[in-house]
Design brief:
single chain; 461 residues; mainly alpha; two-stranded antiparallel ribbon; two-stranded antiparallel sheet; 19 helices; elongated
Length: 461
């Protein structure tokens, strides 16, 4: 297959070099974006009188025919072409003849591939936002359902204070809400059109770059042709945002794996999202959660790979930049798959309410409230802290929870305790009286859930 750039060369490219240089094996997924960009480019060339009306019509019909044939399986993207751009142009020329050779007028592969990637990523960010919104919707459903499901909150993986499952899930709602905004920010910031930048220095043809940008839904053209062809910041931003999303999924998966263990038994993962052991019949393994946690490193690797690729590249375009696609494509596929699977796993998961509550009681999560009780009865906090420490030590020795102690046992530690201590350290009281903004109390959660609901309604509008 003769290369589109072969006129300068007198000897055929070595086959190994050709395969090493070619990108069709992975950039074939950009066919729709490549054709869409070409259609806009041709329309602009016709408007500017660079192509005749007949040439514009002929090329446009040819491009639309190629797109339709690829979509319905009549046209195969075969491997003898160097990249998706040469495939489209060669097939077009084969179909319509000499007019097809004019498709590339006023354009370089440098600005062409920059355009294709921007169009592709713009579409992908919309899909990512849709998947994140589906996860947020599922989280909100669970929050609404579990405002009174008491569970231990943790610090250092130690039981700390009682919260509700709604409150715990609400923390992840905030994380994924930020992820959603990051994808929106990336889309907004990258929405300038590089087509017309040429190889690096624009072109002598009287292109209307504003018109091309408008046709393709961009806010306007890029304002520097060298940056236009060599900018990959938006891909680094995307990979960073994808890495953050995977970090959030991985943290959540880590908790689910722990909660699913025999020691905790806070959740039961649905059979559809679990596997068994080949040798141990009693096992029910949280493989999906573990795989999502594991694939996080894969996405991190793409981010580091992209940063490393770009760090030493002088202006403008260099062939190194071809390395962006496989990393980005793989990271996108990975994150989209993980988001969809995680949402499905979460929606089918069963939460063991009684087990969570019992874990709170025997984890002394109400110890801080017991100390606050003493403070409210005139005991200095530092003294109250020591008294409750001794009380907890006594409970551990006797294998009791704080609310299992008799009044005599309480008074043996401190005479300040009275009958109202039982209400003060009940799990329900411990949660219900925490109603500052962002706390797990019912009134605070009611307000937060309403704000979350309004946010999703606005996002889905």
């Amino acid at each position: 297959m003769a290369q589109l750039w072969g006129g300068r060369f007198t000897r055929k490219t070595d086959e190994l070099v050709y395969r090493f240089n070619a990108s069709l094996s992975f950039d074939r997924r950009l066919y729709a974006q490549d054709i869409r960009g070409s259609l806009a480019h041709v329309k602009m060339l016709g408007k500017q009188g660079i192509l005749t009306e007949e040439e514009t019509k002929e090329i446009t019909e040819g491009l639309n025919g190629i797109l339709e044939d690829i979509e319905n399986g009549k046209q195969e993207i075969t491997g003898e072409y160097e990249d998706i751009h040469s495939f489209v142009e060669s097939v077009l020329t084969d179909r319509i003849g000499e007019a097809g050779k004019k498709l590339h007028t006023g354009r370089s592969r440098n600005d062409q591939v920059a355009l294709d990637m921007k169009l592709y990523i713009r579409s992908e960010t919309e899909e990512l936002q849709s998947l994140v919104r589906e996860l947020l919707t599922e989280l909100l459903k669970l929050m609404e359902k579990h405002t009174e499901t008491i569970m231990p909150g943790f610090t250092h993986l130690q039981k700390a204070q009682p919260v509700t499952l709604a409150h715990h899930l609400g923390a992840y709602f905030e994380m994924f809400r930020r992820d959603n905004s990051r994808f929106a920010d990336i889309r907004k910031r990258m929405n300038t059109c590089p087509l017309g930048s040429g190889a690096l220095a624009g072109t002598t043809y009287p292109l209307d770059r504003d018109y091309t940008a408008e046709l393709l839904g961009f806010d306007g053209p890029t304002l520097n042709s060298m940056d236009g062809v060599s900018d990959r910041d938006y891909l680094i931003e995307l990979l960073s945002a994808l890495s953050t999303t995977m970090m959030h999924l991985s943290r959540f998966c880590e908790e689910i794996i722990i909660w699913n263990s025999n020691e905790y038994q806070f959740v039961e993962i649905d059979d559809g999202y679990s596997t068994g052991s080949s040798i141990m019949p009693q096992k029910k393994n949280p493989d999906i959660a573990e795989l999502i946690r594991g694939k996080t490193g894969r996405v991190y690797g793409a981010l580091m790979g992209m940063l490393t690729t770009m760090k030493g590249i002088p202006l403008a375009y260099n062939k190194d930049m071809q390395e962006d696609k496989e990393m980005v494509f793989d990271a996108l596929d990975t994150v989209k798959g993980c988001l969809a699977l995680f949402t499905g796993m979460l929606s089918t998961m069963k939460f063991q309410k009684e087990r969570m509550l019992e874990s709170c009681r025997h984890g002394f999560t109400n110890a801080t409230d017991a100390a606050d009780y003493l403070v409210n009865h005139g005991v200095p906090f530092r003294d109250a802290h020591g008294i409750i420490g001794r009380l907890v030590l006594y409970c551990i020795e006797k294998n009791k929870a704080l609310d299992d102690l008799t009044m005599e046992e309480y008074k043996a530690i401190s005479p300040v305790f009275e009958e109202d201590i039982y209400d003060a350290v009940s799990m329900e009281t411990c949660v219900q009286k925490r109603n500052t903004v962002g706390a797990p109390g019912p009134e605070a959660m009611k307000q937060v859930i309403q704000k979350c609901r309004e946010y999703l309604e606005e996002q889905n509008a």
